[in-house]
Amino acid sequence: DKGPYRHYMLKEIFEQPAVVAETLEGRIHNGRLLEESFGYETKALLDKTKQVQIIACGTSYHAGMVARYWFEEVGIPCNVEVASEYRYRKTVVAPDTLFVTISQSGETADTLAALRSSRSQGFLGSLVICNVPESSLVRESDVALMTRAGPEIGVASTKAFTTQLVALRLLVLAMARRQGIDEAQLKEWVEELHALPRQMEVVLQLNDAIEKMAEGFADRSNALFLGRGPFYPIAMEGALKLKEISYIHAEAYPAGELKHGPLALVDAEMPVVCALPDDPLLEKVLSNLQEVRARGGELFLFSDKRVKIELDNYQSLTLDDICPTTAPIVYTVPLQLLSYYVALLKGTDVDQPRNLAKSVTVE
Length: 363
Ligand code: M6R
What we know:
Keywords: Aminotransferase, Cytoplasm, Glutamine amidotransferase, Repeat, Transferase. Helices cover 43% and strands 17% of the residues. By secondary structure, it is of the alpha/beta class. It has a 5-stranded parallel beta sheet, sandwiched between helices. It has a 5-stranded parallel beta sheet with strand order 9-8-10-11-12, sandwiched between helices. A two-stranded antiparallel ribbon has the order 1-2. Bound molecules: 5-amino-5-deoxy-1-O-phosphono-D-mannitol (M6R).
């Protein structure tokens, strides 16, 4: 039932504050991570883990890419790869590596095949982050950390992605404690997670302004998404959403790569989308955007209200008081809405985009 919403995708975007809260329920409390809620077996596996190998496809792979920044920040080496490449490659597994798969459906053929072959590769064990309790990946993994997004009907993944990021963040916090991160720091990070549902609710209020912004894309056939650090995979996710449901060709680049090729594509016909959180890479990203402007590219920005933008021409929407560790999750929401409204203007089948299936159970 779509309720008052025109499409499942829009309904699922708006459900995010609630399902993120649901995914945190019983797992954090009063600034504390309740690790006992992960279960004894999971805790025992995490105790032995020294590194992490993440495998996933599509949107779930983007969640893994964000998590790599988080794991390495607390001193845990982390590799991330798409399942279809990993499974056919000869790999060298470092001692004490945990094999982590991420999947909404738990039935993605390549991810499942990668899990099966991981068994003979010398991993410590396997953990799946999944949304479907009775799925193959949950049954075949040693332990599972469930997202509680509820059924996701729209082919374009939205609430599954943000709840995967929440589950990954919980995992990172559990590992951080094992790395000896001090309790005050941990408490602050847990509180940032606790504040997340409310922050997502506030961002959803940009809905009407984003609908208006989408008009700038309706007659375009290309778009560029830029980001640095964990906002690079968020840019990839934004580009995937746009191409998937509006059929506009969209590419994501790490902003620092612009000069190494993609800048040649930028002219007045090229919309460029970028999130501008108040983070240490801000100045670098702003100078990349300056290069875009110098070639006439049209900027569509989502920026923290503390950020001063000194560019000659741009459209921007402001986000308020976003916490640093959860910012990639919050900035995902306006990108989802932007794709949705562009698709609406183009009149595509938003919930059932052409050529795609919700669950990719064949290779
Ligand atoms: O069910 P999974 O998370 O394993 O699915 C992986 C991808 O097929 C999926 O995320 C796909 O990229 C989405 N349709 C993107 O919106």
